[in-house]
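Duplicate of #3305? Posting structure anyway:
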């Protein structure tokens, strides 16, 4: 059932169906064409947001937002060459970022407890690895996962490529989700990364899925890609069956010393369009407004929520780049009347 739209402005008119019949199509599909997705992405903004918000209300508690906290558990020295990433060893001379060791389990637990106390319900851990290697370090990560789950938080890791067996060990430790982003379209991908293939990424997602993990997979806009590339990336994600449960949409944060350091910032409305299109193509997913949020005004962020975002990275730091102040986020959430998602209760609690 659709919730009836409510209006708070005196002169607002109630319009029966201002966009099209599509606004009431709630089906979950896995057969999208990229042309269809691109035409949604480029549709008039009010139609796009209306359609996204309609679908959002059909599948989600409309005012719920999940706060996910992200910690870099192993920073720098990554052998991959992702052009946007300051953690790549390929650009370390230019970025000056030093390779660090894997964090201690106790330190990770300390930060997870702190994130939980501040309101986060998902704790994500990122390691700048090309792939997971079996051994002490992976065993430590498994301990971190068990520890975070024992706090009643969801645990997510992003550790690079993963075999089926490693995915199973993570699932057995209680991992909630595995993050592995597609980054961009298959066609634009080689402009951004050459050290692993698009198919490698899809294989890792398949391994995680087969082990019973939920998937967190999205991408980045603002790297010089076209609207066709953006639509293609969403098409690949939306044609996975089932859809990823979590879809982070990032705006590039150009970092000095990386090949994309001079990339012009995106128009914030492009982010609104991406979020709305992701919401329409994958109605049940938690769409996460991720990196780049710091550069958006309060009003842009509100539009992103209206377009269907229902998750944010929360905390002052996102791996190696800064994020919005946690206090500002809580103030915005309160001002909007949003409720913080609580995975233990399965519903939302007031801030
Ligand atoms: S794999 Fe991850 S950590 Fe490594 S360069 Fe790419 S984005 Fe950075």
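Output from current build:
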């Amino acid at each position: 059932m659709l919730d009836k739209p409510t209006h708070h402005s005196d002169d607002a008119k109630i319009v029966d169906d201002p966009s099209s019949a599509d606004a009431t199509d709630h089906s979950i599909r896995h057969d999208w064409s990229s042309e269809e997705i691109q035409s949604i992405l480029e549709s008039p903004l009010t139609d796009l947001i209306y359609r996204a918000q309609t679908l959002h209300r059909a599948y989600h508690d409309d005012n719920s937002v999940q706060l996910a906290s992200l910690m870099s558990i192993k920073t720098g020295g990554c052998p991959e060459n992702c052009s946007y990433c300051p953690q790549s060893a390929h650009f370390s001379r230019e970025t000056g970022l030093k390779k660090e060791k894997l964090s201690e389990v106790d330190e990770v637990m300390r930060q997870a407890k702190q994130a939980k106390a501040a309101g986060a319900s998902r704790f994500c851990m990122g390691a700048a690895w090309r792939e997971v290697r079996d051994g002490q370090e992976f065993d430590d990560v498994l301990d971190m996962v068990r520890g975070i789950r024992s706090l009643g938080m969801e645990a997510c890791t992003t550790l690079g490529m993963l075999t089926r067996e490693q995915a199973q060990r993570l699932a057995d430790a209680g991992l909630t989700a595995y993050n592995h982003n597609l980054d961009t379209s298959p066609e634009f991908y080689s402009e951004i990364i050459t050290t692993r293939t698009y198919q490698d990424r899809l294989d890792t997602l398949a391994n995680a899925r087969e082990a019973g993990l939920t998937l967190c997979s999205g991408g980045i806009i603002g790297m010089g890609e076209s609207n066709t590339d953006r639509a293609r990336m969403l098409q690949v994600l939306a044609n996975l069956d089932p859809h990823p449960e979590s879809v982070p949409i990032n705006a590039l944060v150009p970092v000095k010393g990386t090949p994309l350091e001079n990339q012009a910032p995106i128009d914030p409305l492009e982010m609104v369009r991406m979020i709305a299109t992701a919401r329409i193509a994958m109605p049940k997913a938690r769409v996460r407004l991720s990196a780049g949020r710091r550069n958006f005004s309060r009003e842009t962020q509100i539009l992103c929520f209206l377009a269907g975002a229902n998750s944010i990275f929360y905390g002052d730091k996102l791996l190696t780049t800064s994020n919005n102040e946690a206090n500002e986020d809580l103030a915005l959430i309160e001002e909007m009347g949003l409720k913080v998602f609580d995975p233990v209760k399965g519903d939302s609690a007031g801030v």
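Confirmed duplicate; merging threads. Confidence is low (pLDDT under 50) at residues 1-21, 347-351. Residues 78, 80, 82, 85, 87-88, 128, 160 surround iron/sulfur cluster (CB under 6 Å).
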